[in-house]
Amino acid sequence: MSVPRTDPSAAPRTFAVDGWSPSSWRARPTLQQPEWPDVAVLAAARADLARLPPLVTSFEIESLRAQFAEAAAGQRFILQGGDCAETFDACESGSIAARLKVLLQMSLVLVQGGRRRVTRIGRFAGQYAKPRSADLETRDGVSLPAYRGDIVNGPAFDAAARAPDPRRLVRAHERAALTLNFVRSLVDGGFADLHHPEYWDLDFVRHSPLAADYQQLVDQIGDGLRFMETLVGVNVAQVHRVDFFTSHEGLVLDYEEAQTRQVPHRPGWWDLSTHFPWIGVRTSSPDGGHVEFFRGIENPVGLKVGPDTDPAALVRTVERLDPYGTPGRVVLITRYGAHAIARHLPSAIDAVRRSGRPVVWVCDPMHGNTETVVPQSGAGKGVPVKTRKFAHILAEVEQAFEIHRAAGTWLGGVHVELTGDNVTECTGGARGLSDEMLADAYRSPVDPRLNYEQALELAMLMARRMRK
Ligand code: PEP
Ligand code: CO
After folding, report:
1. Structural Rg of the chain based on CA atoms
2. Model pTM?
3. Is the N or the C terminus of the chain less surrounded, counting Cβ atoms within 10 Å?
4. Ligand 1 centroid to 367 CA: how many Å?
5. Residue ranges per domain, the chain?
6. Quick check: helix, strand or coil at residue 88?
7. What is the whole-number distance in angstroms between the Cα of residue 281 and the centre of ligand 1?
8. How far is CA 2 from CA 73, 324, 352, 357, 465, in A?
């Protein structure tokens, strides 16, 4: 299918065309939405969200859009990471700072090793909703609504906690604002200054088997910066401030719609709940409500692609989201699993290439590699636990690099679930975390995350690969 030719003299185009409005998704089948019990409370929550100050601005979204265009052209690498699900309780300073640190460290390693500019995107300040395989959960003959994330209901198995409560939409906005406020102050206040990577975490450097490698990278970056500054005569921090963007799965459309606005001096509609919303694999049908909603906003849009995604449907979705062939408008986040990527990615690349859409290809090496193990000893003996093996995560990323290279496309980034804390949720890595150690510090309410040491190790191995 051909892409409409651009007419530079035409009025600025927006994506809000062909009958789109912020509520046009309501006429489509829309999966994974809670059944809010009280429409009056819902209306009040939506009115609140529509009137409160936005979480992000159109200027920032435009800047991210430009960076995605560079990633589509192979000039930039996207690092997107954070929790599978944020909880309202975990909105606290230590955990936010730790997540920021690990993302900054990883990006530093990727810049140094990969020799490409890196865009940092947190899976946070809005990652409060989870898709579920069943609407109800049954325990001992009692059925209650499934836990859909803190934006909808509570995790405790009782009727009060599990009842969807629209007031949680407003709390989610407030927690996101608190998170973002702290992240912005840390980044602006010098925490992210490239001259002082030693602020970000020394624990890793002291205790890890990879300590020497990491320290060497940090030293090289310091030397490089000093060399640049001597050469150019300015402080690099003034030239290039480290910026940071947010993202979350745009699942609960009442939340997204209420925060979608027009802004002065710029055409179109902007979802100001986050810079970069993505559509999950379960809600990615080209004819469903999610694709209808996200096709009309000006933000760049992510789309998860899995082993069950049919290439023809994928192309229809991409064409709906990107009618003009705008570079970086669509970010395809593939999550096949280490054992399936070689079977699926080449045909997806082929189909999208024929559509002529200049997408960014990102690898999510987490969601196709989840498995359940039963530890044979230790504190969690005999209890099944959801985990992911570091070797599988790495293998999926390595294959993604190779398959794109062979196809003549670029791997434009990675999307990972991680935490800055020392959890034991994924096995393997330099320290050799075993199934028996999983119960030591397993804290995720949903999917297993890389701990900060495993995350940094992944970055170092990717950087090595990118340099080759
Ligand atoms: C997620 O990113 O946490 C998620 C649910 O992913 P997917 O839609 O790819 O399953
Ligand atoms: Co997840």
Report:
1. 22
2. 0.94
3. C
4. 6
5. 8-192+243-467, 195-241
6. coil
7. 6
8. 19, 10, 12, 9, 35
pLDDT in tens, the chain (468 residues): 445 544 544 556 899 999 999 999 999 999 999 999 999 999 999 999 999 999 999 999 999 999 999 999 999 999 999 999 999 999 999 999 999 988 988 998 898 888 889 999 999 999 999 999 999 999 999 999 999 999 999 999 999 999 999 999 999 999 999 999 999 998 887 776 766 666 666 565 567 777 787 778 777 777 777 777 777 666 655 545 568 999 999 999 999 999 999 999 999 999 999 999 999 999 999 999 999 999 999 999 999 999 999 999 999 999 999 999 999 999 999 999 999 999 999 999 999 999 999 999 999 999 999 999 999 998 999 999 999 999 999 999 999 999 999 999 999 999 999 998 889 999 999 889 999 999 999 999 889 999 988 998 999 999 989 987
- Distance (Å) from CA 13 to ligand 2 centroid: 35
Taking the CA of residue 364 as reference, the ligand 1 atom at the shortest distance is 9
**Ligand 1 pocket, residue 445 CB under 6 Å:** no
Are 277 and 271 in contact by the 8 Å Cβ rule? The answer is: yes
- At 391, give phi and psi (nearest 5°): -65, -35
Give the number of the atom of ligand 1 that is nearest the alpha carbon of residue 447: 3
Q: Which ligand is nearest to the CA of 309?
A: 1
Residue type, 117: R
Is 85's C-beta closer than 6 angstroms to any atom of ligand 1? no
Mutate to test the pocket of ligand 1, among 86, 147, 281, 305 (most ligand atoms within 8 A of CB): 281
Q: Whose CA is nearest to atom 1 of ligand 1?
A: 84
Which residue, chain included where needed, has tokens 């865009």?
119
Spell out the CATH class of 8-192+243-467: alpha beta
Please work out whether the CB of residue 362 comes within 6 Å of at least one atom of ligand 1.
no
Residue 367, token pair as written in the block = 């969601």
- Please state the atom number of ligand 1 nearest to the C-alpha of residue 127: 3
- Is the minimum distance from the CB of 449 to ligand 1 under 6 angstroms? no
**Residue among 148, 335, 449 whose CB has most ligand 1 atoms within 8 A, to mutate:** 335
Residue 131 Cβ inside 6 Å of ligand 1? The answer reads: yes
How many angstroms separate the Cα of 261 from the Cα of each of 14, 185, 244, 272, 404? 13, 25, 22, 7, 37
Contact 248, 43 (CB under 8 A): no
Q: Which ligand is nearest to the CA of 133?
A: 1
Kindly state the tokens that stand for 132: 């579920």
